[in-house]
Design a protein that fits this description.
single chain; 1983 residues; alpha+beta; 13% strand
């Protein structure tokens, strides 16, 4: 049976449990579980991180831990009873774990590894804490380490700052808000700005000396030198180097590393240097021979200097290479460093060009203990300490030091009978009282151990040597007395074996007889003659002699007169010895009582460091004197005591205060002193008012604290000794003393008067006395003293009086003192404190201090309330205090916060910090106060307002302050704890205040301002980031919800209830509150949304009542949605919420359902639908605009949104904003053409008028004309950059017309020049031909604007299919690439995934007239091939029926897909959606016809190019001829004969008779062209290719015979070969007659649209070959064979793309027609694939695939039967003869509009007609139209002229004739309709050079087509540049520049001025049936 557990509540999983039993709960090792019940070895419970899943698990798997249960029962929470640091560590590490893995994913390797180390470190430390074997101190250290690591990690990961006290986390509810703020502030400060260290240390590591001429050992001395005062600041650090210049003992690091310790901040300046002296040890002269002498001398070598300031800027531990200088003359050696510092170049030089000293130098900051912790390695490895000369800036008690520094300055010596000066060396010894040499007590410097003696350096031949060598004598204190130092002088001879001869000595005793040590300073010592060492053995003999010339008796002339002297400088640094006689006199006062007066007087002149050395002895002396003769010396002793007390206030000696405190507590024995001290103190206080000089009195008052300490301690000692006698007398004395103090404080003075300054001095020290008084008096008594003393201060003081600030500081210290903590004293002191505070805050003075006082007061209240100290009787006390504070300070506090928040922030970082502190502290005080207030307090507060206006002002004020508190910048970003507390207080207060709002400001007393402020606050409250729980980690969210709940929902409910109370006043808030409320509904919290959405319904309802519609609501909603979404608010469910697909719970049905019940439901529902659709686009837009998203996505999304604003919402301003956003995106992506088209959209909205436009976006205020001019120029510039020069020309012309009409010839000239330059660029510059790709986006995971749609995309320059494919997969990294080209099924459409289907498509150009016109250069044609493309084609070969292995062509069909786009490419985007898709199947026979046609065209083109010498070499023609002839011989054309010319085929397919004839005709034509081609080839072929040519001729004869051709039929022979590219030599209007041998007979025949393509794979009969044929590359002949790239095409043009020449062109009238302008498309094609053999490669080409990689000019390349995937049916379309029935047409050609005019086109040689039927099995997605056959129309038959036939062949591919695309039959050109009569002209009826007569075309054929109707139902895209009424030009235009049809377009574009009317009006030729875009309201003028 399951029993609820009592104690087993919490445990940790020891081993993983799979949970395979019924109801089992799977557990992972380390999980924490909460246990609910137990039963026979099993527990039931849940894992803490997922409390919703409960289950059972074995008890043996759980390690139980002690835990504390809160609110037992169903909702109990369990808190483990363990150290809070452990709990925090565990939860933090869990949070970090997840984030740490994310760092790896985000590739933040550095932080990943650092965090990993820290986590491991924390785990180790956690183990140590858990084991529990640590000492108390060690535990403290470990916790400190842990918390430091936790804080570091939290900061790095951007987590919250944790408030801590003593290492444990603090519960914000357990402490006052002010205290919480202080803790946060303290932690933040610590993190932010470490306090600058006051002590610094210099680390020096001697590496080596580099020099060419070493060879001797060296000694290197470092010291710190003050260049300003010319003295050393530190002792020396000494390193010995070996002969190689490296340290002698490398294993002992302390011998080469040192720390110069205790440098003060003042020592880190520019003129403080590190000076290095280098001494060599060896021969006297550096270059002397080795065998001269074996004695070694210390000789100068060099010196180096570096400034300490350089180290402050250098990196932490740089290695420095110091230059070493030598002095020019040795006598300068003592000051070489000064010369280097002063840059006295003449006195020193470099000691060698490559001599350098390698040293590591590093400045360290902080005290030495801190360094020991931070740089452990340094100290463990060993480092010597080099001390400062003298004490450091701060002297610590207990510091032991006894160093005597002696500097050997200089000497004066006589020649001593020598002709040259001596080489003097000094040897230094220290001898003790017994004359024994003290071993190891002479140190040359730190780093090396002390020696017994010291040898100075030797200066060569110098009788006045100056050494300036400092040595240190660390002699113990007890050995000082009686010791002396002896200096022995020797001459070092460089001859005589180099011996050192003694010639004299000096000595100096270290202590004088009276106990004083050798005084600091320079001493001139006497040199005593002595030549025998033995004379020095007994020192007692010479010690009796005088040692210094200063203390020679005046009668001793012999020694005084001698010239020889020796100077030393001594300096003692000792904590035990003194050189001061006065100090010694005072301490020995009993020996000389008569000197007491003098000694007390001189005490003030003694150096402070001497006094603190003997502090306790001095104090004993003073109180001893006071006890013995208080009458006589009382005042003097008091003054001396004051002097010592004030000395300890100095920062240098402040650490001695504890020494004095200890003295008072433990050693002080003056039980009677209190009377004298009180008496003297009162005497001084009484004299204050009258005294002229206040300085001394101020000194006395400064010492008040310690004087009181002595008084109180003395009284306590007296009471103890006497059992409390004279108690009353003592109290009276103290009362009298305070009366005197109150009297002097009550004096009113000017702020600057001396008395006022004395008052200030007293107030500063007064609070320090409270603690002492409490030792004797009761709390109430002391509180009374304080109240009266502070109350006695004058109240009317000037604002600028410094006393005011001091008064406030005194109050602050009072509030922070022990006294105030006691509730008894608090109620006495509070009124005084509040009075002062209120006065200051009202005048906004000393706010920092006021904040400090308030903070202290409020933190105490909180403590009392939550602490155990509050007893029942004290609760009212706390409540009263709160009441008092609220009454006097709440209003003024609010005002203060408002004031300081609105003030401009002061400059200067320190000021700003202080400013922020003050705001933060006041805010914390306000929060603390509000949190203390109970219902009763609120009631009293609200009742206290005398009038409604006062209450209104108060509410406005508090709401404004709350808004300020919510600001993100109020607290640092990681202070979430503080923010949550703030919000909790705000919401509680608002709930109290909303009642007041309802009671006092509704109905007739309604006040809009207060309500508005209330709503505004609520909205900001809900939206603040720190309450968006969704963005937090689960653990953080859980903690917040447990503690505070979801405060957003509480506030939301409050908004709703307040809104319901408003009644008809709601109208005041419509539409103003729509935006804010909408913002609230964007918060992804279901409950909150359910509360808020009905408010919108309400708003719509009220607005409907008021104005009959809710346009305002709609407009505001849409505007706000846009701005909010772009800020990144909202989510997917939000859209559904608005649309209410999900039923909303709660009392309110969904918004849609509510609306459906209303009378105005239709407009309501449409509004919701619009808003939802807008949301979809906005959400996509927001997602795409995120950082790191690719430009393609952003652009696509922006286009989608742009269209929506234009077409559906008609929001012009938004539309224009998004135009510019899109424009910027294009510029960034360098899509200059697209950028131009985009900007054109805005340009079109403007007219050439002078209306003024307001400033908008980046445009200044200007006229509409100016803005349009600016836009035109910008667009032209971008078209130029995008190499779309033709479009730029049109705009140039338009601008030129404008300039011309204004007679602005200067600009007109510029514009014409610009236009000319664009024409030049067209002819001279190369343009790359882009590829086009069709991309399908399938699956629900795509953004809305892509989902389940297909697009055609224009690739980047040089981008081929593989690259494009990779780019798309990079843009959509989660997408799956589909490996086939079939249309996907519904499962793919509905899948929760992303599928991409990509293949290349071929563009079908619209402008066939330009492309097929003779003599138009390729540079020009290239533009028309790839611009303004609406339609794209893709072919897929397949076999139908049984496949004949012998001849596959019998069953080879082609499935042709034509895609029509919603807009032509290029346009405002690189991709547009596919609007319509048509599918046609091409039969094998038609396929064969197409293939041969294409090859014929290609041959013609190459032959023409060769003839006109456009080719540099003849290879392309050679290869093409070889490919065709070779393939034909090897069975190419023969396969077609076998397939289609056999009886079986002809019998089975009687309808194909005409087509078979056509095929035969084409074969013959090909043979004819080949024959002519060979003739041309022979003419140009180079000599080395002759054999190949001969072979070709032979093979050609074979081919002819295989075709059965002996002689060509007449029609073939006579027909001229027509070349589309046109030979320049042929006349434009005449048919070239150069091919037929007889030259002149023009034979009429129908010309078929020539397709400039050739197939690049050899057509053998194998299937594999055939398929590679199908999928192989095809390149336009001019691309491949011309070998010199034309400007329009790159030689890198696609391997998978069809040539654009394949397409046919519409006459210009058709091209410009608006119907078409509407829905055409473009795209470029990839090789189609046979699904059987290559399912993948066409979409994802295989790099190794031979079919793709075959070189484009492969020989053996074919013309034969092949399905060219790159050619569309319409491209090879034939005009239909009369015998054709049109019943198979699936869609009528839409282009025959009523307005079609006459056609005029360049002629093409006619070809004989053939009859045949259209392709089989046509599939179309357009509906079938009614009347199909031309015979049924009312058009009378008429005979076409040859030109019409010709033009038909040119026009056949026009997009206008979309029947050909939709149905797959050969396109119906206008001519094909005209031939419906069936009449045909006999061959030869037409003259060879026919002239085209104008012909009228019927216009009724299209009447049955549904295409125009389909178009009408769609809103046209808003992008046609010339949609407005402009005269159109028949130049082919970009789509957005498209032109309506002209009646009579000439063959060539006319000159602009003929067409242009100055006023740019429309000629009205646009098709009336085409709907125009919604007209925009004319508010453009503002934009």
């Amino acid at each position: 049976m399951w029993i609820p557990t009592e104690h087993e509540k919490y445990g940790v999983v020891l081993a993983s449990f799979r949970g395979t039993v019924q109801h089992g709960l799977p557990l992972e090792i380390g999980d924490t579980v909460q246990i609910l019940e137990k039963c026979e070895g099993w527990y039931r419970g849940f894992i803490l991180k997922n409390p919703n899943v409960k289950g059972i698990f074995p008890s043996s798997y759980i390690h139980l831990k002690n835990a504390h249960v809160k609110n037992k029962g169903q909702f109990e929470t369990v808190i483990p009873v363990e150290d809070s640091v452990i709990t925090e560590m565990t939860s933090t590490l869990r949070d970090w774990g997840a984030m740490w893995k994310q760092l790896y994913v985000k590739n933040e390797g550095d932080l990943f590894h650092r965090l990993w180390h820290v986590m491991n470190e924390i785990l180790d430390l956690r183990r140590q804490v858990l084991v529990g074997h640590l000492t108390h101190d060690r535990m403290r250290d470990v916790k400190q380490h842990i918390t430091a690591r936790l804080d570091w990690g939290n900061e790095q990961l951007g987590l919250d700052l944790v408030p801590r006290r003593e290492f444990s986390m603090v519960d914000p509810d357990e402490i006052s808000v002010t205290e919480l703020y202080r803790l946060m502030e303290h932690r933040h400060r610590k993190k932010e700005t470490p306090a600058p260290a006051s002590t610094h240390h210099l680390f020096v590591h001697m590496k080596s000396l580099m020099s060419a001429n070493l060879g001797e050992e060296l000694e290197v001395f470092f010291h710190i030198y003050d260049g300003r005062e010319n003295r050393p600041l530190s002792e020396r650090f000494f390193v010995r180097l070996n002969k190689s210049g490296l340290p002698k003992s490398p294993e002992k690091t302390e011998r080469q590393c040192t720390l110069f310790v205790d440098l003060g901040s003042s020592d880190l300046r520019k003129d403080v240097y590190i000076v290095v002296h280098i001494i060599r040890i060896g021969r006297m002269g550096a270059g002397e021979k080795k065998n001269l002498c074996s004695v070694q001398y210390r000789r100068p070598f060099g010196c180096a200097v570096v400034s300490i300031a350089d180290l402050l800027t250098a990196d932490s531990k740089d290695d420095h290479l110091l230059k070493v200088y030598a002095c020019n003359t040795e006598s300068e050696w003592h000051q070489i460093h000064e010369n280097i510092i002063k840059k006295a170049n003449s006195r020193y030089n470099l000691s060698g060009s490559n001599t350098g000293l390698a040293v590591a130098l590093q400045l360290l900051h902080g005290d030495i203990e801190q360094l020991r912790r931070e740089y452990m390695v340094l100290f463990t490895r060993g480092v010597s300490i080099t001390r400062k000369l003298g004490f450091s800036d701060v002297i610590m008690p207990g510091e032991m030091r006894n160093d005597l520094y002696v500097t050997l300055e200089k000497g004066e010596f006589e020649k001593g009978g020598k002709s040259v000066a001596r080489n003097v060396e000094i040897t230094v010894y220290v001898l003790d009282i017994d004359g024994q040499i003290l071993k190891s007590h002479v140190a040359a410097g730190s780093g090396e151990p002390g020696a017994d003696e010291y040898h100075s350096l030797v200066l060569y031949h110098n009788n006045s040597p100056r050494w300036a060598e400092q040595i240190k004598l660390p002699i113990p204190v007890d050995m000082f007395r009686g010791s002396h130092v002896r200096f022995e002088f020797r001459h070092c001879s460089t001859k005589d074996k180099g011996e050192k001869k003694l010639f004299g000595y000096s000595f100096v005793p270290l202590m004088q007889e009276d106990g004083r040590t050798l005084p600091d300073g320079t001493h001139e010592l006497i040199i005593h003659k002595c030549e025998e060492n033995t004379n020095l053995a007994d020192c007692s003999r010479y010690l009796k002699q005088p040692f210094s010339k200063a203390n020679l008796p005046s009668n001793n002339q012999t020694l005084k007169g001698t010239k020889e002297s020796f100077w030393i400088t001594s300096f003692l640094c000792s904590t035990k010895l003194t050189q001061n006689g006065d100090m010694l006199d005072l301490l020995k006062w009993r020996a000389h009582p008569e000197r007491i007066n003098d000694s007390l007087s001189k005490l003030k002149e003694i150096d402070g460091s001497e006094i603190v050395k003997f502090l306790q002895d001095t104090l004993d002396t003073l109180f001893g004197i006071l006890d013995e003769s208080s009458q006589r010396y009382g005042l003097k002793v008091f003054d001396s005591l004051v002097h010592i007390i004030n000395l300890l206030q100095d920062s240098k000696f402040q650490h001695f205060k504890p020494v004095m405190d200890t003295y008072i507590e433990s050693h002080f024995a003056g039980a009677l002193s209190y009377r004298d001290l009180i008496k003297v103190l009162k005497w001084y206080v009484d004299r204050i008012v009258d005294a002229e000089h206040q300085d001394h009195i101020q000194q006395v008052l400064k010492a008040t604290e310690y004087i009181f300490k002595y008084i109180i301690q003395s009284r306590r000692l007296f009471s103890l000794a006497t059992g409390g006698q004279n108690e009353e007398e003592f109290r009276v004395c103290i009362h009298e003393l305070f009366m005197s103090i109150r009297f002097f404080l009550s004096q009113e003075n000017k702020g600057t008067s001396p008395v006022a300054q004395t008052q200030a001095v007293f107030l500063r020290t007064f609070p320090l006395v409270y603690g002492e008084l409490l030792k004797i008096f009761t709390v109430r008594e002391v509180a009374g003293f304080v109240r009266e003393t502070l109350g006695s201060l004058p109240t009317t003081v000037h604002a600028d009086c410094p006393l005011e600030a001091v008064k406030l500081q005194c109050i602050a210290k009072t509030v922070e003192s022990q006294l105030y903590i006691n509730p008894e004293s608090r109620c006495i002191l509070l009124p005084v404190v509040l009075r002062v505070l209120q006065a200051h805050m009202q005048e906004q003075r000393d706010l920092v201090m006021c904040a400090r006082i308030l903070t202290s007061m409020l933190s105490l209240i909180k403590k009392e309330e939550n602490g155990t100290a509050v007893s029942v009787k004290e609760e009212p006390v706390v409540s009263e205090e709160v009441e008092l504070i609220v009454e006097s300070l709440l209003g003024v506090l609010l005002r203060t916060i408002l004031e300081i928040s609105n003030r401009p922030q002061p400059a200067g970082p320190t000021m700003r910090l202080q400013f922020q502190d003050v705001t933060g502290e006041f805010v914390a005080c306000l929060l603390a106060l509000l949190r203390q207030m109970s219902d009763r307090h609120y009631q009293q507060l609200l009742q206290a307002f005398s009038s409604k206006d006062n209450l209104r002002d108060f509410l406005l004020q508090i709401f404004t302050v709350f808004r300020i508190l919510i600001r993100p910048e109020m607290f640092p970003k990681d202070w979430t704890v503080m923010r949550l507390v703030t919000n909790n207080v705000i919401i509680t207060t608002v709930l109290y205040l909303s009642d007041a709002l309802r009671k006092n400001f509704l109905n007739d007393k309604f006040d809009y301002k207060v309500w508005d402020s209330y709503f505004y606050l609520s909205v900001i409250f809900i939206n603040q980031p720190c309450l968006q729980l969704e963005s937090f980690s689960p653990s953080k969210r859980k903690k917040i919800l447990e503690k505070y709940g979801d405060m957003r929902v509480m506030m939301g409910c409050e908004i709703f209830s307040m809104w319901q109370n408003l009644g008809e006043h709601k109208l005041n808030f419509i539409p103003a509150m729509i935006g804010p409320f909408l913002e609230v509904t964007l918060v992804p919290q279901p409950d909150l949304r359910n509360v808020m959405i009905p408010i919108f319904h309400d708003m719509m309802d009220w607005e409907q009542r008021r104005s009959g519609n809710f346009k305002q609501v709609e407009a505001k909603l849409i505007d706000k949605l846009d701005s909010l979404m772009s800020e990144g608010k909202g989510d997917e469910t939000y859209r559904e919420l608005f649309n209410s697909i999900i039923p909303l719970f709660g009392p309110y049905p969904s918004l849609l359902k509510k609306i459906e019940r209303e009378t105005w439901r239709e407009s309501g529902i449409s509004l919701i639908a619009t808003v939802t659709r807008l949301m979809e686009r906005l959400l996509d837009y927001r997602d795409c605009m995120k950082l790191g998203e690719v430009d393609g996505k952003k652009i696509g999304c922006t286009v989608s949104l742009l269209n929506f604003y234009k077409t559906e919402l008609n929001k012009e301003e938004m539309y224009i904003r998004y135009i510019h956003k899109l424009y910027d995106l294009h510029l960034k992506a360098q899509n200059y053409t697209e950028a131009s088209y985009t900007l054109l959209l805005y340009d079109e909205l403007l007219e050439w008028s002078d209306r003024p436009l307001r400033e908008f976006l980046n445009y200044p205020m200007q006229s509409e004309w100016q803005r349009k001019e600016y836009l035109h120029l910008t667009i032209v510039q971008n078209f130029d950059r995008g190499k779309c020069w033709e479009n730029g020309i049109i705009l140039c012309r338009e601008l030129a017309d404008q300039y011309e009409s204004y007679y602005d010839y200067r600009n007109l000239s510029k514009m014409r020049m610009m236009e000319a330059s664009l024409y030049d660029k067209i002819m001279d510059q190369q343009r790359l031909e882009p590829e086009f790709f069709r991309v399908g986006f399938y699956g629900k995971k795509f953004p809305f604007f892509l989902r389940n749609k297909e697009f055609v995309c224009r690739g980047h320059d040089y981008e081929r299919l593989e690259a494009f494919q990779q780019r798309m997969l990079n843009e959509f990294p989660h997408a799956i690439a589909m490996q086939h080209v079939n249309q996907p099924d519904q499962t793919i459409y509905q899948a929760e995934a992303q599928y991409l289907q990509i293949y290349a498509v071929t563009p079908i150009p619209e402008s066939q007239d330009v492309l097929q016109r003779d003599g138009v250069p390729d540079n020009i044609k290239s533009f028309y091939k790839f611009n303004h493309i609406w339609r794209f084609r893709y072919d897929r070969p397949f076999h139908k029926g049984t496949k004949d292995k012998e001849n596959e062509f019998k069953s080879l069909w082609v499935e042709r897909t034509t895609l029509t786009l919603v807009q032509s490419l290029p346009g405002i985007s690189r991709w547009f959606e596919v609007d319509k898709r048509e599918l046609v199947e091409v039969s094998p026979l038609e396929n064969a016809i197409e293939v041969i046609e294409n090859k014929n065209l290609q041959l013609r083109t190459l032959i023409t190019q060769c003839q006109s010498r456009q080719m540099q070499n003849i290879n392309p023609l050679t290869m093409c001829l070889n490919g065709v002839i070779d393939a034909a011989v090897n069975g190419g054309l023969a396969r077609y004969q076998e397939a289609f010319f056999v009886k079986d085929y002809v019998m089975n397919h009687p309808e194909d008779g005409e087509k078979i004839g056509r095929l035969r005709e084409l074969m013959f034509e090909q043979a004819h062209i080949l024959e002519y081609g060979l003739a041309v080839h022979e003419k140009f072929v180079p000599q080395d290719m002759r054999p190949l040519h001969k072979k070709l001729v032979d093979q050609f004869h074979l081919m002819k015979s295989s075709l059965g051709i002996q002689e060509f039929p007449a029609y073939v022979r006579a027909s001229p070969v027509h070349f589309t590219n046109g030979s320049p030599r042929t006349c434009r209007n005449s048919v070239p007659n150069i091919i037929s041998p007889d030259g002149g007979r023009g034979v009429t025949r129908r010309s078929y649209p020539a397709v400039n393509r050739y197939s690049s794979s050899s057509l053998s009969s194998q299937a594999s070959n055939e398929v590679s044929n199908i999928t192989g590359q095809s390149e336009s002949s001019d691309e491949v064979f011309n070998m010199q790239p034309s400007p329009s095409t790159s030689s890198l043009s696609s391997n998978h793309s069809a040539s654009p020449n394949v397409t046919s062109s519409a006459p210009s009238s058709a091209r410009g027609s608006p119907q078409m302008a509407e829905k055409h498309k473009h795209s470029r094609e990839n090789a189609c694939l046979s699904p059987r053999e290559r399912p993948v490669s066409a979409i994802f080409p295989n790099p190794m695939d031979p079919a793709q990689r075959a070189p484009s000019h492969q020989i053996g390349d074919t013309t034969l039967p092949r399905s060219d995937p790159n050619l569309s049916a319409p491209d090879k379309v034939r005009p239909t003869p009369s015998s054709w029935s049109l019943d198979s047409v699936k869609e009528g050609p839409p282009s025959f509009s009523d307005s079609v005019g006459k056609l005029l086109c360049p002629p093409v040689p006619p070809r004989p007609p053939y009859s045949g039927s259209s392709a089989k099995n046509m599939r179309s997605q357009s509906p079938v139209s009614a009347s199909r056959s031309p015979q049924k129309t009312t058009v009378p038959p008429f005979t076409p002229s040859p030109t019409e036939c010709q033009s038909a062949s040119l026009v056949s591919n026009s997009p206008v004739l979309s029947g050909s695309y939709s149905s797959g039959i050969s396109s119906l050109s206008r001519c094909s309709v005209s031939e419906a009569s069936g009449t045909e002209l006999p061959a030869g009826d037409h003259p060879p050079h026919p002239l085209p007569p104008p012909t009228t075309l019927p216009n009724s054929v299209s009447s049955s087509s549904d295409e125009p109707i389909r178009r009408e139902n769609k809103t046209p895209p808003p992008y046609s540049v010339y949609e407005r009424n402009n005269p159109r030009r028949p130049v082919p235009l970009p789509h957005s520049l498209s032109i309506p049809p002209q009646t009579d377009p000439p063959a060539l574009p006319p000159k602009p001025h003929q067409l242009r009317t100055g006023s740019m009006k429309l000629d009205g030729t646009a098709d009336p049936r085409v709907p125009r875009p919604r007209p925009l309201p004319r508010k453009v003028s503002q934009l």
